[in-house]
């Protein structure tokens, strides 16, 4: 076995991490470079890894042809509302789970953890039916409620771990 402090081990580690860095950074580089190409240069063959001329026309057309500012505003509203309400609800639940001792505490934590193991697409059918019955399909309110319901178990478990490590003297 190679010693972790030996020169070959360091070289192998640096090469492996460098390869991993390239693999993870390249898609971000490619998105950025492609967005700065002229519309005609995007589909040229052979592929240009560095454009001949930079252009921000794609960004101008994004805001002129589509209602992109509306999409950004909707995303901001939904994400802010969902994050705020989910964090508040999870904070209250996590505080109770971290500070108080009661009989079903372990069961509740296990239920929260089990819900994270179930793939989200399994709930799509029932969620669609429930949102349709409540008249919340295709509304921001419905989307916010779904995001809150998905975030609360994970946030509760994470915040409970944090609050359990805060000493009671700081309360």
Characteristic key phrases:
single chain, 171 residues, mainly alpha, 6 helices, 70% helix
Write a structural description.
- The chain is mainly alpha-helical.
- Helix content is 70%, strand content 0%.
- The protein is built from six helices and no strands.
- The chain has helices at residues 7-35, 57-65, 68-99, 105-117, 124-134, 140-164.
- Helix 3 packs parallel to helix 6 and helix 4 (105-117) packs across helix 6 (140-164).
- The protein starts with 6 loop residues before the first helix and ends in a 7-residue tail after the last helix.
Brief overview, please?
This protein is mostly helical and 171 residues long. It has helices at 7-35, 57-65, 68-99, 105-117, 124-134, 140-164. α3 (68-99) packs parallel to α6 (140-164) and α4 (105-117) crosses α6 (140-164).
How many strand segments?
Answer: 0
Q: Which regions have little confidence, pLDDT < 50, spanning 5+ residues?
A: none
Distance separating the two termini: 50 Å
- Report the average pLDDT across residues: 90
- Helical content (DSSP H or I, runs of 4+): 55-70%
Radius of gyration: 24 Å
Compute the number of helices: 6
Helix and strand composition category: mainly alpha
Largest sheet: none
Please provide the ordered H/E string of secondary-structure elements. Answer: HHHHHH
Strand content: under 5%
Give the arrangement of secondary structure elements.
Layout: H1 7-35, H2 57-65, H3 68-99, H4 105-117, H5 124-134, H6 140-164
């Amino acid at each position: 076995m190679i010693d972790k402090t030996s020169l070959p081990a360091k070289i192998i580690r640096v090469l492996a991490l460098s390869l991993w860095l390239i693999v993870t950074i390249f898609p971000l580089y490619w998105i950025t470079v492609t967005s700065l190409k002229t519309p005609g240069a995007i589909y040229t063959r052979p592929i240009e890894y560095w454009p001949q001329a930079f252009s921000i026309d794609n960004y101008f057309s994004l805001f002129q042809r589509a209602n992109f500012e509306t999409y950004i505003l909707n995303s901001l509203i939904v994400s802010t509302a969902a994050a705020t309400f989910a964090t508040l609800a999870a904070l209250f639940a996590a505080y109770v789970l971290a500070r108080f001792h009661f009989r079903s505490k372990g069961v509740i934590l296990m239920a929260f953890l089990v819900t994270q193991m179930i793939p989200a697409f399994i709930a799509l059918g029932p969620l669609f039916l429930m949102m349709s019955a409540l008249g919340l399909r295709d509304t921001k309110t419905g989307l916010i409620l779904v995001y809150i319901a998905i975030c609360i178990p994970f946030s509760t478990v994470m915040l409970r771990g944090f609050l359990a490590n805060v000493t009671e003297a700081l309360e």
